[in-house]
Design goal:
alpha+beta; about 15% strand; globular; about 170 residues
């Protein structure tokens, strides 16, 4: 292979069509559709009543989008008691359950279907630890959360939970 006019051949690796004995067998062409990336996922996220009340909707959405996530569906509205009970069924009977249901139905929320590479893990990383006191600065809960009972945002903890929660809130 001859170099383009005006370019000099430098060293033995300038002819990539003939890599030589040291690289032969180590260079493999990949199909153009093969990627070293995680699968595109959908997840469910909800800005809770305190996040809405305190004016954090725009900043939270901005953080998701800056992280490469896409908001596929979004709705400002109330969570019905039936939706709350379905979403938090695993907590029924625990001491905080009644307060959780009362809180999540106390004011408007922003319900979202979010997608992107590794969306579940990426959203959870952006949200931070469940307890705002333990959440790192720079995370949504670390920056905006004040108390455990009102921790700004909810996000699915697995692809299976995401599918279930999307079904509850976007029938």
């Amino acid at each position: 292979v001859l170099p383009e006019p005006g370019l000099k051949r430098i060293g033995p690796f300038s002819d990539f069509s003939n890599p030589g004995p040291r690289l032969a067998g180590r260079l493999q062409a990949r199909p153009s559709n093969e990627r070293n990336s995680m699968a595109i996922q959908q997840t469910y996220s909800m800005i809770k009543p305190d996040g809405v009340r305190n004016g954090h909707i725009g900043e939270i959405i901005n953080r998701f989008e800056r992280a490469g996530l896409t908001i596929e569906r979004m709705e400002l509205g109330m969570v019905t008691p039936e939706q709350a009970k379905a979403n938090y069924a695993e907590h029924e009977g625990k001491p905080f359950y009644d307060g959780l249901i009362a809180y999540i139905t106390s004011g408007p929320v922003v319900k979202m279907v979010v997608s992107g590479e590794g969306a579940v893990a990426k959203c959870r990383s952006l949200m931070g630890a469940t307890n705002p006191a333990e959440a790192a600065p720079g995370t949504i809960r670390g920056d905006f959360g004040l108390i455990m009972d009102e921790n700004v945002i909810h996000g699915s903890d697995s692809p299976e939970s995401a599918e279930r929660e999307i079904g509850i809130f976007f029938e």
